[in-house]
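::Encoded backbone::
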Amino acid sequence: MSYVETEIRDGAVWLWLNRPERHNALVPAMVSDLRSAIARAAAQDPPALVLAARGRSFSTGGDVAGFLENSGSLEALKDYSERLVGGLHAAILDLLAFPAPVLAAINGPVTGGSTGLMLAADLVAMVEDAFVQPYYSEVGFGPDGGWTALLPDRIGTAKALQIQYRNERIGAAEALVLGLATSICPSAELESQIRNWTTDIAKGFAQTHRATREKVWDDQRRAEVRSRLDQEKARFLELVTRPETLEGMRDFKKERA
């Protein structure tokens, strides 16, 4: 079974995160599957790419159980974290370099590093009860997935820090005001909202959309994001092996058992 399923709808490529039994929590194999799917989609030169998810959550970020299962030694934990966070960051950069508009269908909670997948999208539709939340200060992780590399540029430094310091939950309505979401809708209308966008996009010249996106996310800007993501990863690897973080992970998992 692949952790990422691919569908073609009206020419657009839809990539579905497919680990619903774990709320699409990320593991190294999943981000690897995602990168492979993005590469295959780019080779097809579609009019648009859509990120979507099976189940009730878009993604709850890195699977805490996976970190704990690999915490037998500090080296094993660091290696696992490097593969997961490094792979996630590479996937985000793949999305920023994608040669067509990227859309996200947010069907439920988006927490932790998976927020970076949403931040890499150009148009975002959220269901009314979806939300975004960091959770880093609750567990002890360093922010990853663009919480410091991408979010401050989107909503302002002060607001980005406030959300992370206080572990605030950003509901769909607030996400719309902040510019993190393009629209909000009932759950039953999510896919039709995305399909309306892909239809509109397909009416335009693909080469114009491509040129627009390439100029917005040009080599220099993506290099800056890559540098910031590398800093996030370095700090994540430093904090993940601390005894306090290991205890935070155990408590977090116990509370949600």
